[in-house]
Amino acid sequence: MFTYRDATAVDAEAIADFARETWTATFGHLYPPEDLNAFLTAKFGADIQRREMADGLRYVLAFDDAGLAGYCAMGALDMPVDDPRALELHRLYIHERAKGAGVAVKLMDETIAWARAKGAPALYLSVWENNERAQRFYRRVGFADYSEWDFMVGATADRDFIWRLAL
């Protein structure tokens, strides 16, 4: 059984810890340690997540009996796309124990409903070219290829696909 709620600044440290843990478990083996550490330091920390919230990024958290099981972060478009009224799903991170349990679907539904309520014409996300599991999920939801860009992890440039969902 999962419960969901919006995050507050009090949750920032737990979000940062969870993000570092899940990102490293999923992608950490792909990068030199200095690039991985630079990325994690730049993207995930209690102060960083609090600042993101203060700047309007909305976090929705999923919990199970073991604690934080997943989250999504949504907000203004922050990638190279010329679509001024569109919004972005910045992160959708699910703990391994919660994958396949409907958490990603619930968080995605919440993100899409939020974007529609904001009057956005589209929702964008970025997905690593080799993250096939995520790509399958995003396709099922209705996202389609839009373009690509270099997603930087330290000094390593990853080819990421930018996908768009018309709302």
Helix/strand layout:
Layout: E1 3-6, H1 12-27, H2 33-43, H3 46-54, E2 58-64, E3 67-76, E4 87-94, H4 103-117, E5 122-128, H5 132-141, E6 144-153, E7 156-166
Parallel strand pairs: 4-5
Antiparallel strand pairs: 1-2, 2-3, 3-4, 5-7, 6-7
Helix pairs in contact: 1-3
Distance between the termini: 30 Å
> Outline, from the CA principal axes?
globular
Output mean pLDDT. 97
| CATH hierarchy, class | Alpha Beta
The arrangement of helices and strands along the chain is EHHHEEEHEHEE
Domain N-acetyltransferase: 2-167
Protein name: Protease synthase and sporulation negative regulatory protein PAI 1
Enzyme class: transferase
Keywords: Acyltransferase, Hydrolase, Protease, Transferase
Question: How would you describe the overall organization of this protein?
Answer:
By secondary structure, the protein is of the alpha+beta class. The chain contains five helices and seven strands, in the order E-H-H-H-E-E-E-H-E-H-E-E. The protein has one domain (3-166): Gcn5-related N-acetyltransferase (GNAT) (Aminopeptidase, 3-Layer(aba) Sandwich). It is 37% helix and 34% strand. A hairpin with a 2-residue loop joins strand 2 (58-64) and strand 3.
Summarize the structure.
37% of the residues lie in helices and 34% in strands. The chain is an alpha+beta fold and 167 residues long. The mean pLDDT is 97.
